Amino acid sequence: MTRHLIHIGYPKTGSTFLQHWFAAHPQIAYVHGGIAGFRNLYAMVAEAAAGETDYLWRVTSHEALASPFPDAGKRNIDLTWPGEGTPAERQARACALLADLFPDAHVLIVTRGFRSMILSSYSQYVRVGGTDDLETQIWQGGENPWRYDEAIAMYRARFGDRVIVLPYELLARDPVAFRGEMARRLGVAPFDFEDAVVNRALSPIELRWYPRMARLARRLPFRRRMARLYLGLVFDNRLAPLIALLDRLSPAKPVDGTIVTDAVLEAARGLSDGLAADPIFTPFARDYLFEHRLKPDPND
Predict the structure, then answer these.
(1) Looking at the domain assignment, is residue 277 inside a domain?
(2) Is 279 part of a structural domain of the chain?
(3) Residue 227 placed within a domain
(4) Intra-chain end-to-end CA distance of the chain, in Å
(5) CATH number of the structural domain spanning residue 75
(6) What is the DSSP string of 54-123?
(7) Strands 163-167 and 106-111
(8) Is 87 part of any domain?
């Protein structure tokens, strides 16, 4: 029996890497931007006409399912309108929709520790034309969008024990071990797969200079045309050589982990404590701020 896996992200947790792995695995049917391994309805009809397949899993994967926004999948994103309601409300609507359509599916959620998540998410924001500095972006809107315990509980209420939760940190540290864990959880055979870095984040210096350039592009004549031109350049990081030169002439403060201070991270404490009970998250306790949950209780 072929089963359906819905990979919902989170964004910046190796989704592109996972999608390449899904697409390459001989026992998994996956098409980028498709549903359940089908590009569209016509592909489903064509496969039915061609005969039976031996896939163990069909995969639907999009990182925006964990954080829905109207322009998901587009390169030109309207940063001023994330959608109706709070991030939690949009996430709940996505969960309910998936459960109504695919009540027997399995769900994969990949999380990421808060400090690196903030930095990587900011890198993506800059890549789609963001103009604000990180110092004014942290917790923008007043709500932390990475409320892992709440999201996992919501999906488990709908999908039960068919929810798989894995840490991005395992993928970053040991891709082979991460792929092995995925294969074990899904019951598929290991296979040769070439690990590669995809969707590389911008450097700390580039993260400081690109928003400055975005603000300048908005002040130039023909600003819409200039903004479109700039977006193509920043998305592919084509201005990296110019930024390196500018930074030699006028060094800027790098956008790095020192900006995401421990005081900033206190706003996230307690949002992922439920992960502390899962041994696979134990090596990454500090990334999720539940190290206090892992210390022995002196009263035991």
Answers:
(1) yes
(2) yes
(3) no
(4) 46
(5) 3.40.50
(6) --SEEEEE-GGGTS--TTTT-SS--TT---SS-HHHHHHHHHHHHHHH-TT-EEEEEE--HHHHHHHHHH
(7) parallel
(8) yes
Question: Which range marks the domain in which residue 71 is found?
Answer: 3-201+256-294
Q: Give the three-class secondary structure for 4.
A: strand
Name the pTM for this structure: 0.89
Q: How far apart are alpha carbons 282 and 300 in whole angstroms?
A: 20
133 phi, psi to nearest 5 deg: -75, 155
Q: How many CB atoms lie within 10 A of CB 242?
A: 12
Q: How many domains does the chain have?
A: 1
pLDDT tens digits in sequence order for the chain, 300 residues long? 899 999 998 999 999 999 999 999 999 999 999 999 999 999 999 999 998 788 999 999 999 999 888 877 776 676 666 778 888 899 999 999 999 999 999 999 999 999 999 999 999 899 988 999 998 877 655 567 899 999 999 999 999 999 999 999 999 999 999 999 999 999 999 988 887 656 677 999 999 999 999 999 888 887 778 888 888 899 889 999 999 999 999 999 999 999 998 888 888 889 999 999 999 999 999 999 886 544 444 444
